[in-house]
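Before the break, one more example. Copy the sequence into your notebook; we will annotate it together after we see the structure.
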Amino acid sequence: MRVDLWGTRGSIPSPGPETIRYGGNTSCVGVTLADGSLVVLDAGTGIRGLGLALPTEPTRIHLLLTHLHLDHIQGLAFFAPLFRPDAEVVIWGPASPEASLRDRIARYISAPLSPVEVRELPCDVSFRASPQEWEIGGARITATAVAHRGPTLGYRIDDAGSSLAYIPDHEPALGADLEQLEPEWISGFALAQGTDLLIHDGQYADEEYDAHLGWGHSALSHSLAFAARAEVGEFLQAIDDHDDLYTAFSRIVGAGEGFPQAAPLTREDFDEYFIRHSTAVSVACFGGYLVGASYIKPNFVGRAAHIANAGYFVSAPYRGTGVGRALVEHSLREARRLGFDAMMFNLVFESNQARALYRELGFEELGRVPKAVDGEDAVIYWRSLEDIEPGEVDR
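Here is what the structure looks like once it is written out:
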């Protein structure tokens, strides 16, 4: 099973330099099954790019809609296969006593919102209410109603030994303590339980949640608790901006710790340094708050792009608690998965604890850059990734 993220934003498309790393399109995920079948999850503006990337030969596509809020269907009228006579598109979605799925979607693909009507689409298109369980290709698809405003489904895909749960708009807590609830009382629990990958709502910071209780979205700590209770293998959460990351980084730079900047960066410079050119950015959270982060990027483009450059930071209260180790171990595994052969970085203001950790994890000290920052030497660390397997390091 291959999962491609074509749209990761909520509510409204947000193009611009600050979203260039993960894109500004609204919800759309492409899932290629083991037999080559394509399942598309939601039809936000990201579905336009997905459609343009598909081959032009005759094809059959299954589109699974979680619900019909605008940010999950607004790209539908721009999905290229809908306008190809040789394409077959099967659209699945939640049932409603109000009207059929076709009639509800036709309210969007019709005047005055669209110059094209559903009945005019040249493809072979059909609309089906999602049953509780069915098969597409060799995969088993499970659909379950989840806590969100209006008829809303979450989906689970089990295919060739891999599993994915997709619940992008979801409020499992509804003011309750998820860690105390019995599993049968937690919305979406059975869908997510034990999956290899969970894609889940991440709309609000914890301090924002009380003002939005009942709106159908999760606070960060609720999402983390839900993933932990469901014992998922990997957890992917949609976060609309990098404010928490920028704030934590600025606090560390302001304290003169760990990074060479003399003063906190502007938001634009931070995005350029930490986000924009990174191959992967990971964050560590505890109790709903960001407590550390890492990035991986090519050390140099071109012939040296097989070597990863990494950077890490951990907020002061959480140093020595295992957060740093988890970030480094994860970055090694992620860098190997992304195809890098080795990793290196320069470390300034090093501590004995950091040196011991890097040595324990297999890094070598290649040398020093004398008086690199405020008279302090920078230590050059390097590690081959040949012994790292994609599944070897726990997350």
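DSSP finds nine helices and 18 strands in the chain. The CA atoms of residues 325 and 357 lie 7 Å apart. Try to locate both features in your own notes.
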